């Protein structure tokens, strides 16, 4: 054997992921955000169930969303530390987490329907937070164990929003007469029942897939190596006995890491920055309130297509985003165009808010233009996440995949709290008393960043409440 050759000794044969594993990942995605959708999509009904005025909608949604995202990040952080440090019991823990997520939905239902006329708002709030802790863990182990089938999980997440909205419409059709029915309790109650069913199916499928050793992390690693060997044989760089020729796979340094940088950028920008702008700024600050619902419906429907298309391409071809982004599959790097466009949209949104006399702001006064850029912005997000999240694993491995999730969640939470604090400060002023009128751009940026950070810290403290009803009413009073 010559000095430039190596031999691969593994006899493991490559096996593509089974249909049941793909189904388990799909239902994991479909179930993941169902409790958050109870808190947010069902917010208008929850307000009435808990005897709160409709004018408190914005404060209620902000408190629920901020709390769930913060505790989800804490959970993801703990989970990431575990999977980066240990390589044991992933499958068993993930099964336990899936079962726990189903049970927390049952508890959420009991808390929601109890408490008499006023209900148990604070208990409901903390149960939602508990669910966020569980689905934070769930995400970590999904990204660790999914492998190439992650595309089916990603495709299902936006579909859950359409499913919940459709379910709400149907429930309103049946029980919309408030003179005969307790409509608000029934709409959210049935939505939680749907969540119990979906999460139970997801838990059963997940347990069936990962209770067996064939889908263990070790077997997945062997499967990846076998696939790589098979591909090298097909390309002629490796003989069928495992002997490697020449300088195949001898890339070193940054060249070896280039394929994973692109999907990580897509993930961090695509998901990390989106909810700092949507929906509070785009479309919230760009169009009249009467247009917002229509724009949200368009966004909800269209945003389900990118991840679904990525999953379809990955299923029916050998050129999916869940394969290595090298050679003929390197065209996926061109999708960096989408996070770039997303950042351009974000800059335009900020310019409209702070330079109302600019040509950009004048252009955005047309609701069609504002709607177009809001939809474009969210489609760029959906495409970046659908492609980027799927592309990290095949170009690195499970540890980098969970690290990418952690970095994305950190970015999202930091920017969300800064954005919430910034919007709180922005709404205090009118143009006649604008605080940065005499400041230069750098000084103005520092002003808004400082105020956003201060208000954001106040919002973080507000998450840890013993009486949510009191805090929401006090926020309005001040």
Automatic annotation (TrEMBL):
Entry coiled-coil feature ranges: none
Top-rank lineage group of the source organism: Eukaryota
Region named Disordered: 222-244
Keywords: Membrane, Transmembrane, Transmembrane helix
Transmembrane parts of this sequence: 23-47, 59-83, 89-112, 150-172, 184-207, 260-279, 291-312, 332-350, 371-393, 405-424
Presence of the UniProt keyword Transmembrane in the record: yes
Descriptive protein name: Uncharacterized protein
Species this protein is from: Theileria orientalis strain Shintoku
């Amino acid at each position: 054997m010559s000095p430039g050759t190596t031999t691969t000794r593994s006899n493991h044969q490559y096996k593509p992921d089974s249909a049941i594993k793909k189904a388990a990942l799909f239902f994991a995605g479909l179930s993941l955000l169902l409790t958050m959708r109870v808190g947010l999509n069902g917010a208008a009904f929850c307000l009435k169930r808990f005897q709160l005025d409709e004018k408190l909608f914005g404060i209620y949604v902000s408190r629920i969303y901020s709390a769930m995202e913060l505790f989800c990040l804490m959970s993801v952080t703990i989970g990431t530390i575990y999977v980066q440090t240990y390589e044991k019991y992933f499958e068993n823990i993930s099964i336990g987490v899936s079962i726990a997520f189903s049970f927390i939905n049952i508890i959420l239902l009991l808390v929601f329907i109890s408490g008499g006329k006023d209900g148990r708002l604070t208990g409901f709030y903390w149960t939602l937070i508990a669910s966020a802790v569980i689905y934070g863990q769930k995400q970590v182990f999904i990204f660790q164990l999914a492998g190439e089938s992650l595309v089916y999980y990603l495709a299902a997440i936006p579909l859950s929003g359409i499913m919940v909205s459709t379910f709400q419409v149907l429930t309103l059709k049946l029980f919309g007469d408030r003179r005969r029915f307790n409509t608000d309790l029934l709409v959210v109650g049935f939505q939680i029942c749907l969540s119990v069913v979906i999460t139970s199916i997801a838990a059963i499928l997940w347990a069936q897939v990962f209770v067996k050793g064939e889908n263990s992390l070790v077997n997945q690693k062997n499967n990846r190596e076998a696939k790589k060997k098979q591909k090298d044989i097909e390309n002629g760089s490796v003989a069928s006995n495992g002997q490697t020729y020449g300088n195949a796979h001898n890339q070193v340094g940054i060249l070896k890491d280039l394929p994973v940088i692109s999907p990580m950028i897509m993930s961090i920008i695509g998901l990390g920055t989106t909810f700092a702008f949507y929906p509070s700024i785009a479309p919230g600050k760009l169009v009249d309130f009467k247009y917002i619902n229509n724009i949200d419906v368009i966004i909800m429907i269209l945003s389900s297509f990118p991840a679904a298309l990525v999953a379809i391409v990955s299923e029916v071809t050998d050129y999916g985003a869940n394969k290595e982004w090298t050679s003929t599959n390197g065209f996926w790097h061109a999708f960096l165009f989408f996070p770039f466009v997303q950042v351009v949209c974000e800059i335009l949104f900020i310019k409209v808010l702070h330079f109302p006399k600019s040509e950009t702001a004048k252009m955005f006064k047309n609701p069609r233009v504002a709607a177009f850029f809001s939809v474009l912005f969210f489609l760029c997000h959906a495409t970046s996440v659908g492609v980027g999240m799927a592309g990290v694993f095949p170009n690195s491995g499970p540890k980098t995949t969970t690290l990418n999730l952690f970095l994305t969640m950190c970015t999202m939470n930091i920017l969300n709290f800064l954005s919430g604090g910034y919007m709180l400060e922005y709404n205090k002023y009118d143009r006649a008393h604008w605080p940065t009128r005499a400041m230069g751009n750098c000084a103005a940026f520092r002003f808004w960043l400082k105020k956003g950070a201060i208000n954001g810290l106040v919002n973080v403290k507000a998450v840890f409440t013993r009486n949510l009803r009191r805090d929401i009413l006090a926020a309005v009073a001040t």
